[in-house]
TrEMBL record:
Residues 69-334 form the Fatty acid desaturase domain. Residues 369-380 have a biased composition (Basic and acidic residues). Residues 363-401 are annotated as: Disordered. Residues 387-401 have a biased composition (Basic residues). InterPro entries: FA_desaturase_dom, Fatty_acid_desaturase. Pfam families: FA_desaturase. This is Fatty acid desaturase. It comes from the Bacteria.
Length: 401
């Protein structure tokens, strides 16, 4: 099932883990000490680009008369919404730019352009997910409360609907994130009934503002061409939702993104937490444009290690993190975007079925593994990456036999 002993699973000694933590702390310090005008210019230029593109896209939609003009404007609007959602809203809310002390680009004041309430999302995401990453029964992002993504969650007949739920979540991802945030907020304020009611009311007001802006005010400003604007806004929101869903799922649920039992939190050190982030996240390969479009969340491992460091630095951080993984013989989980998404879909569809239909053991499956998969593996022969290769070879030999 889920990993209960991270050191045993990683094939690292406590000293190795502490040394790994020291080296990751050094990366953090190096980046923090080098932050300056270049980084501040990056986020300001990104915000200016996004807002300019948003305005231009809406003008193209409203003023062009051709189908191509509508498609171009809608695509540009969807891209602007994606940039605002991930490269700006998500990262600003993480506090990545708080060091600038700019009240307009600060985690305490930023409210992003989607239905979720930033304050509610920050608790569910920044704390429940990033601090308690992939802890079964604790991290709400592990399946978002509607899907089974590890065999540690007992199968129920409702899981047969998982493929349909997955498609629905992808289409209305911003709604899912909004409800996810208020659900976590409810857990935080219980048993304060008034606090729960206020959290729900805040979410309803935010949803009403977003719906009014996108589906009433913007179309009304287009006059007789309101239908053109309405369909463009709706389409752009769906495209943004689909893209955000793909990026998030590819960073958290492909093979190699491990899950953990609550017991790993007992006396967990900073170095242990770092190791859990490396083992619990996954990257996908991306060039500069794809990285920008994904909010640099193609570097999900680096983001989980340093969620408060500016996203424009993740590419250079990744070089050092990957070198550390090589040095400590740890897997650096990455692949193409299509491969990572295919592996994620495989897990979603596979775990919709009862366990009796699954072939791999609950300790040695692509989506659910534990230190018990190495019960017949002798320690002292390298780290986790080497152990995984031996385990894969042993499994193939057993299949042939």
């Amino acid at each position: 099932m889920a990993i209960a002993d991270i050191a045993a699973y990683a094939h690292l000694s406590e000293r190795d883990i502490e040394n790994l933590g020291v080296e990751l702390d050094e990366i953090r310090r190096d980046i923090e000490e080098s932050l300056g005008a270049r980084d501040a210019a990056y986020i300001r230029h990104t915000i200016l680009f996004q807002r300019t593109l948003d305005v231009v896209a809406r003008l193209v939609i409203a003023l062009s008369r051709s189908r191509k003009g509508w498609l171009l404007g809608t695509a540009a609007l969807a891209f602007a919404k994606s940039v605002e959602n991930m490269e700006i809203g998500h990262n600003v809310s993480h506090g990545q730019w708080d060091w600038m002390n700019d009240p307009e680009i600060h985690s305490t004041t930023w409210e992003w352009d989607m239905m979720a309430v930033s304050a509610q999302w920050k608790y569910s995401h920044n704390y429940r997910h990033h601090v308690l990453t992939n802890i079964v029964g604790v991290d709400d992002d592990l399946g978002f409360g509607i899907m089974r993504l590890t065999r540690d969650e007992p199968w129920q007949p409702v899981h047969l609907l998982q493929p349909v739920r997955n498609l629905l979540l992808a289409l209305i991802f911003e709604v899912g994130i909004a409800l996810h945030g208020v659900h976590s907020e409810r857990d935080r304020v219980l048993p304060d009934a008034a606090g729960v009611a206020e959290a729900r009311a805040t979410l309803v007001r935010k949803i009403a503002r977003q719906a009014t802006k996108d589906y009433l005010i913007a179309p009304a400003l287009s006059g007789r061409r309101w239908r053109r604007t309405l369909t463009a806004n709706a389409s752009a929101n769906v495209v943004r939702n689909l893209w955000a869903y793909v990026v998030i799922f590819c960073g958290h649920f492909p093979d190699g993104a491990e899950k953990f039992t609550p017991s790993v939190l007992d006396e967990e050190s900073r170095a242990d937490w770092y190791l859990r982030q490396i083992l619990g996240a996954a990257n996908f390969r991306a060039g500069p444009l794809l990285a920008f479009a994904s909010g640099n969340l193609c570097y999900q491992i680096e983001h989980h290690l340093f969620p408060e460091l500016p996203s424009n630095r993740y590419a250079e951080i990744a070089v050092r993190v990957r070198a550390l993984c090589d040095r400590y013989d740890l897997p650096y989980t990455t692949g193409s975007l299509m491969r990572q998404y295919f592996l994620t879909l495989r897990t979603i569809h596979k775990l919709a079925l009862p366990d009796r239909f699954l072939t791999a053991t609950s300790d040695d499956a692509p989506e659910t593994a534990s230190e018990r998969k190495f019960s017949d593996d002798r320690r002292g022969q390298g780290g986790l990456r080497s152990a995984l290769k031996r385990s894969k070879g042993n499994r193939r030999r057993r299949q042939v036999a």
